[in-house]
Write a structure and sequence with these properties.
The protein starts with a helix and ends in a 7-residue tail after the last helix. The chain is built from 16 helices and 14 strands. Helix content is about 45%, strand content about 15%. Among the domains are: about 10-145, Probable tRNA modification gtpase trme, domain 1 (Gyrase A, domain 2), CATH 3.30.1360.120; about 245-405, P-loop containing nucleotide triphosphate hydrolases (Rossmann fold, 3-Layer(aba) Sandwich), CATH 3.40.50.300. The strands form 2 sheets. It has an 8-stranded mixed β-sheet. It has helices spanning about 1-10, 45-50, 115-130, 140-145, 150-165, 165-175, 180-205, 210, 215-245, 260-265, 310-325, 340-345, 395-405, 420-440, 445-465, 470-475, and strands at about 20-25, 35-40, 50-55, 60-65, 75-80, 90-95, 110-115, 135, 245-255, 285-290, 295-300, 330-335, 355-360, 380-385. The chain is of the alpha/beta class and about 475 residues long. Bound molecules: guanosine-5'-diphosphate and magnesium ion.
Length: about 475
């Protein structure tokens, strides 16, 4: 049994013991307080020994640490030297983390230097000369995955954590890094494996099928323990995408209604140019911000109208295109100008999208005025604001946040699949549904096991029990070098 499981691990995590030792600068480019060079692999400690000299604090005597005397997880103070000349390159702290107690589970050496491009480059060159190769983007994390320290969802969580722009996105990523997603998927798979075992025993002992198999019970179990939770994952992934990538909110309307002014108000900057001249904004302008912890990408667009000016026409076409793939459209009109048929013609093509009708320039409305709103658009959420006087902008932000993320969306302890994971989960969901249907109609067990196995494989791909090399490449290429 022990031997069999070892074999399984080797098959699933093809570990090449001869694989190269990798190195990279792990801190961002530019000058900073410190810069870190990270080395991982079998030659890491050898490289450390070759380049590092300990400096005795009292006598100032410099000496390399004898082979085998490096204590793991301990910082040493000293110099990195050019091994050919013995000249000091930088004053450093160095630490060796012997595998498997390291990020990659291999021996890892970190050199903490005085940052600065020239110093870092000089030391990295010596490290490479000493037998390391330059790491590819995400290669340290890829090794952590291949060596079984983390599963694929944790690796993806690490990327999301690095890229998280808001507190909510950070929390979602942290849940993945802790392995919560993998735990849930593994629990669902265990349930499926139980059912698979029952079906298989029925195939092995066909005479006992009627006595042994509780088709309806199995179908119910599948529904409750597998199909339902997978369905919840799929439902949540849309909210997750918004929290990860940011909601695309497009500000659109006729020329001169105050779109650019509104953009500036929502961003809190003077990003877009505002003038009384219609047609000032000719191209779309994009900027990132966050509202109540939700990352939002606002796009200001050229005013929609018929125009013969070719440059303006391109702007108008772009505006229309970005409206099409918006998560939310802020349709802006003016409070003191009656809504006309032209407005309705313009808004018609995207009436099926999420829209907030923003009635701007409320400051030009006298208290006795009322806005005559077209009947068929009365159901749309609408708000009266003044971009100029900063009136109603907070309510607008609340409305935007509410419409971007569903209110029943629990961001306290969220497990939300990303697009890749969602694809695998959907495949697992469909196969599991086919099995549940088949169980109800007493389909022969051998046919059911095919679908069940396909569902298991799809879920295995989520956590990386089964994986394809091209998928791994795609996942890890999203990292920066040095992670
Ligand atoms: N009175 C008033 N004028 C505004 C308001 N918002 C924008 N404007 C003015 O309307 C004109 C056009 O504004 P702009 O933001 O460039 O509109 P856009 O063409 O839709 O981008 C400028 O003169 C702005 O100062 C508002 O809330 N109240
Ligand atoms: Mg404008």
């Amino acid at each position: 049994m022990a031997l069999a499981s070892v074999f399984l691990i080797c098959k699933e995590y093809p570990l090449d013991k001869t694989q190269s030792t990798i190195a990279a600068i792990a801190t961002p480019a530019g000058s900073g307080g410190i810069g870190i060079i990270k080395i991982s692999g079998a030659r890491a400690s050898h490289i450390g020994e070759r380049l590092f000299r300990r400096v005795h604090s009292k006598t100032g005597v410099r000496a390399s640490i004898p082979k085998g005397e490096w204590e793991t997880h301990r910082f040493y103070y000293g110099h990195i030297v050019d091994p050919d000349t013995g000249h000091m390159i930088d004053e450093v702290m160095i630490v060796l983390m012997r595998g498997p107690r390291s990020y990659t589970r291999e021996d890892v050496v970190e050199i903490h230097l005085h940052s600065g491009a020239a110093v870092l480059r000089a030391v990295l060159e010596r490290v490479l000369e000493s037998g390391a190769v330059l790491a590819e983007p995400g290669e340290f994390t890829k090794r952590a995955f291949l060596n079984g320290r983390i599963d694929l969802t944790q690796a993806e969580g690490i990327i999301d954590l690095i890229h998280a722009r808001t507190d909510r996105s950070r929390k979602i990523a942290a849940v993945q890094v802790r392995g919560k997603m993998a735990e849930r998927i593994a629990a669902i798979r265990r349930e499926m494996l139980d059912i698979l075992a029952e079906l298989e025993s029925a195939i092995d002992f066909p005479d006992d099928i009627d006595d042994a198999l509780d088709f309806i019970g199995m179908s119910n179990r599948l529904q409750k323990e597998v199909i339902h939770p997978l369905g919840r994952f799929i439902e949540h992934s849309e909210g997750g995408r918004l929290l990860r990538d940011g909601a695309k909110v497009i500000i659109a309307g006729k020329p001169n209604v105050g779109k650019s002014s509104l953009m500036n108000r929502l961003m809190g900057t003077e990003r877009a140019i505002v003038t009384p001249i219609p047609g000032t904004t000719r191209d779309t302008i994009e900027d990132n911000t966050s509202i109540q912890g939700i990352p939002v990408v606002f796009t200001d667009t050229a005013g929609l109208h018929e125009t013969r000016d070719p440059v303006e026409r391109i702007g108008v076409d772009r505006a229309r295109a970005s409206i099409q793939d918006a998560d939310l459209v802020l349709w802006v009109t003016e409070a003191h100008v009656p809504i006309t048929n032209e407005d309705l013609v313009l808004v018609e093509p995207f009436k099926n999208q999420k829209i907030i009708w923003v009635v701007n320039k409320s400051d030009l409305l006298s208290p006795s005025d009322s806005i005559d709103f077209p009947k068929r658009y009365k159901a749309l959420p609408r708000l009266l604001v003044s971009a100029k006087e900063d009136v109603g902008i907070d309510s607008l932000k609340n409305q935007i946040a509410e419409m971007c993320v569903r209110s029943d969306f629990n961001t306290e302890n969220p497990i939300i699949p990303n697009l890749r994971q969602k694809g695998c989960i959907e495949a697992g969901f469909q196969h599991a549904k086919a099995v549940a249907e088949g169980l109800k109609t007493e389909t022969p067990p051998d046919l059911l096991t095919i679908d069940l196995q396909a569902a298991l494989d799809a879920l295995g791909e989520v956590i990386g029990i089964t994986f394809r090399e091209d998928i791994l490449d795609r996942v890890f290429s999203r990292f920066c070098i040095g992670k």
